[in-house]
Design goal:
- There is one protein chain.
- The chain is mostly helical and 540 residues long.
- The chain has a five-stranded parallel sheet, with helices on both faces. The protein has a two-stranded antiparallel ribbon with strand order 4-5.
- A hairpin with a 2-residue loop joins strand 4 and strand 5.
- Helix 8 runs antiparallel to helix 9 and helix 22 packs antiparallel against helix 23.
- It holds the Pfam family TPR_19.
- This is Response regulator.
Length: 540
């Protein structure tokens, strides 16, 4: 059991009286290391700078923020480690229903009014559970997913009280290992004993991963019908309808989700972009204007939101409003890596709309010459930049951007959308030419590394493939083969912790970019085989 006196606590609470009350309670338990954050934004800033053992967060944080949104941001952005306890304090009597529907739940929640004895007991219980799961969490954080899964299965037998929690974690680990069949089977096992909404959502996500969109939609539609406030289910239902080309239906689902949860920046952004894709420019402008407004005060602000807002305004001929948005982009997003290229692209769109092709071309030249700033763009925004270049007769610049996209394309959907952009502009021939050039480049890089492995030049193979990774950091084929080259080095030259960490990182990146790769399981198995062979934890 952890020694309470040694633990670091962060209290997230806007009410000064409640902050003082919680600190007094913690002090009475011998806990002196207590810090405060009166808002979600300040909490995120502190959590980026320092690791805390326990977070006590009020559910209602004011200004539209709530503790559940904060928890999701902290976990999804990996701002806090798995072993940091997040405990919600709330006066909401229906919070149990909120938590049972949440995809990411806190470690515990305590209803107000709370007493010192209650807080002490719940802290001890949460810390006891943390100690039980700590070995699995440590393996997850070091990228040893398969070992984490094996440990999880073994520990479940000795901790039957936490069986459901271990099963949930097993399902998530199977999903991380791109094993949706096994994950879905575990969710079904959970549902056979306990009808929890999060398990049904998990099952739907695994069906989505297998591209069984009809079955996923059936579950998600039922979840939404049974619990109209299950916002995570709305998000996945919208994604399912997007994947099947039903953009208007996806828009309607997201609009319902935003009506229920209007302060979630990621969800608002998704709605605005779907409205824009569906041709609802006026609605898109209203939504994206709200995204831009909220984003200015968010730790997750993104200059790309301004570009989408400019697109919505220009598509309605609202050029004065677009100009104002561009000025706001340059002033309010100053200092972010992608701001210069987003501003240049926005100006190019504006000049194209207002009939000034020379100015549009000059702005695009500024955009494509921004170097690292272009690399910071999302794939979607790079594709918007390609469109603008081709529409303004800058074929060389557009071609170079296409090559960059294809080099780092993580899925066939990205490739197909890029092809469609060129086809729509009568340049299907250019698409074929550029794709073949990139394929040849990737084949050459992988072949060079493989030849070095065959000749026994394992150091050279690792150098060659890591250089390829630097050139194509988002290409799953390059990442996969780089990981294989590193593992071959370990297999033939012995254990090297630096290389092992490199391999884990490459495998994790490959899995994130190409989760359905059928060879990933074998690559992970090879890694685990080497770990067992050398037993590095015991000096082997």
């Amino acid at each position: 059991m952890a020694d309470l006196e040694r633990l670091n606590f962060l209290i997230i609470e806007s009410n000064q009286g409640m902050r003082s009350q919680l600190r007094s309670m913690l002090n009475s338990f011998g806990i002196a290391n207590v810090k405060f954050a009166p808002s979600a934004a300040m909490a995120i800033s502190q959590l980026r700078d320092r690791r805390y053992d326990v977070i006590l967060s009020e559910y209602n944080l004011g200004d539209g923020q709530d503790g559940q949104h904060l928890l999701e941001d902290l976990r999804n952005k990996e701002i806090i480690p798995l072993d940091t306890l997040f405990i919600m304090i709330t006066g909401e009597r229906n919070y149990e229903r909120v938590m049972s529907a949440a995809e990411l739940a806190p470690d515990d929640y305590i209803l107000k009014p709370l007493t010192p004895d209650m807080l002490h007991m719940r802290l001890l219980r949460a810390l006891e559970k943390r100690e039980i799961f700590l070995p699995v969490h440590r393996l997850i954080e070091t990228g040893e997913t398969q070992q984490a899964l094996e440990r999880c299965i073994a520990m479940m037998e000795s901790h039957p009280r936490h069986r459901i929690d271990f099963l949930r974690l097993q399902a998530e680990l199977h999903a991380a290992l791109t094993q949706p069949e096994q994950a879905e089977a575990i969710y079904r096992e959970i549902l056979a004993t306990k009808a929890v909404p999060w398990a049904r959502l998990g099952q739907a996500k695994m069906l989505f991963a297998k591209k069984d969109y009809a079955a996923a939609e059936e579950i998600l539609s039922a979840l939404v019908a049974e619990n109209s406030r299950y916002v995570d289910a709305y998000d996945w239902l919208a994604r399912t309808r997007e994947e099947t080309g039903r953009i208007q239906e996806a828009r309607d689902v997201l609009a319902s989700a935003v009506a229920l949860s209007p302060h979630r920046l990621k969800r608002l952004r998704h709605l605005g972009n779907v409205q824009l894709a569906a041709g609802d420019a006026a609605d898109a402008e209203r939504t994206l204007a709200e995204v831009v407004r909220k984003g200015k005060y968010s730790d997750f602000r993104d200059p790309e939101d301004h570009v989408h807002l400019v697109q919505a305004q220009l598509s309605q001929g609202r050029t004065a409003e677009a100009q104002a948005t561009i000025r706001d982009l340059e002033s309010s997003m100053d200092g972010l890596a992608s701001t210069p290229v987003c501003a240049s692209l926005s100006k190019a769109l504006y000049h194209t709309r207002t009939g000034a092709p020379e100015l549009a071309q000059a702005a695009l030249q500024d955009a494509v010459q921004s170097g690292a700033a272009v690399s910071a763009l999302s794939i979607d925004m790079k594709q918007e930049l390609v469109k603008a270049c081709l529409d303004n007769h800058l074929e060389a610049a557009g071609s170079q951007l296409v090559i960059d996209i294809l080099r780092n394309a993580a899925d066939e959907r990205t490739v197909e959308r890029t092809r469609a952009i060129l086809r729509e502009r009568g340049r299907g021939d250019l698409s074929n030419e550029l794709e073949e050039r990139v394929h040849a480049e990737v084949r050459g890089l992988i072949s060079a590394g493989a030849d070095m492995v065959k000749s026994g030049n394992f150091d050279g193979a690792v150098r060659e493939m890591m250089a390829a990774v630097q050139k194509m950091p988002g290409n799953p084929h390059v990442l996969f083969n780089a990981a294989l080259a590193v593992l071959r080095h370990i297999e033939n030259r012995g254990w090297n912790e630096r290389l092992a960490a490199q391999a884990r990182g490459l495998i994790a990146r490959t899995r994130r970019l190409d989760p359905t790769n059928p060879r990933l399981e074998a690559l992970s198995g090879f890694m685990q085989q080497l770990v067992r062979k050398y037993n590095p934890r015991h000096g082997g």
